[in-house]
Write a structure and sequence with these properties.
The chain is mostly helical. The chain is built from 7 helices and 2 strands. The chain is about 75% helix and about 0% strand. Helix 1 packs antiparallel against helix 2, helix 2 runs parallel beside helix 4 and helix 5 runs antiparallel to helix 7.
Length: about 200
């Protein structure tokens, strides 16, 4: 399973890079947008890969439910580059093709599902009765699980048409919400750095 996951994550990252070859901007600003867009997709997938690898190195795949969740995650990761590359192309699509609001919503559903599965894996790892990690790390993994759930919720909430119909400085709120996911990671790291409060019992 680990070999298959490494292969799929590697292919997903490579496909994202190949998408740049078909995009030949005629202006410098277009080149910047292409690189920034690729950087976003690369960073998100790389962070998912690192988190997945870290969790699965400890969490045993021992049940049919865990195997099914793994296969679902790998499928979601494999279609991520395709859905992401649909978004810029849909802005100039011909009549009858999917519009950017639809393609970006599909991408958001895919990403929300990826983080939801990651949250499930982290939840299983953080169960105290499983004794898979030291007790002093349980709090950090529970914070990681909660933060992952928040990121998943942000992607799912961004699917609402409201967040596509409104824009700030010409940027749809849906995209702004996606960028806001990095804030949740910073908040989680800040909470992890705080010492546990002493018990009042």
């Amino acid at each position: 399973m680990q070999t298959l996951s490494d292969l799929i994550f590697g292919l997903a990252l490579s496909i994202g890079a190949f998408g740049l070859l078909s995009d030949r901007p005629t202006q410098f600003i277009g080149l910047v947008y292409s690189i920034v867009g690729f950087g976003w997709a690369f960073l998100i997938l790389a962070m998912v890969w690192v988190r997945y690898t870290r969790v699965m190195s400890v969490l045993p795949v021992e049940t049919g439910r865990m195997i099914a969740a793994n296969m679902l995650l790998l499928f979601l990761v494999s279609v991520e580059p395709y859905l992401y590359n649909l978004i810029p192309g849909s802005f100039s699509s011909a009549s009858g093709q999917l519009d950017p609001g639809t393609t970006s919503a599909l991408y958001a559903v895919d990403m929300g599902s990826i983080f939801l599965v990651l949250a499930y894996f982290t939840h299983e790892l953080a169960k105290e009765e499983r004794r898979l990690i030291p007790k002093d790390l349980l709090r950090n993994y529970r914070l990681l699980r909660n933060g992952t759930l928040v990121v998943s919720a942000i992607f799912f909430i961004s699917v609402l048409p409201l967040f596509w119909g409104l824009a700030i400085f010409g940027i749809q709120l849906r995209f702004i919400l996606w960028m806001g996911t990095f804030v949740t990671w910073s908040v989680r790291r800040g909470l992890e750095a705080r010492p546990n409060l002493p018990s009042t019992k």
